[in-house]
Write a structure and sequence with these properties.
Blueprint (H helix, E strand, L loop, with lengths): L1 H48 L2 H10 L4 H11 L4 H14 L1 H10 L6
Helix pairs in contact: 1-4, 2-4, 4-5
Length: 111
Amino acid sequence: MEGCGKRSVDNSKESEEEETGKAEINEEDFHLKILKDICCELLSNMLQELTKENTLEGLHQGHLNEQTCSCAFQNLLPLYSASVESFLVVLREADQTLAGNLEKRFPSLKV
């Protein structure tokens, strides 16, 4: 009898620990989502401010390439499509090939 009671207490402790762990994961996911949303908004604002000269410098230094732009677009679209489209206008002036590749990869963009 005592063994059964002890096992049920142990099981309830494990259950509480699992629930606490799940709550922590959900809270962490929530905080990560907030951080991602803030980063996306910041990035969209930065893309709108980039000039042809800034873009050329970013391309020259290797900070802007198809991989980084694609990653940014995947996270920004469709919520920040206006920012992405304005960046593509500037990018087209700096590198038509890269802009064309990105437009093919993201056909929802209307530039």
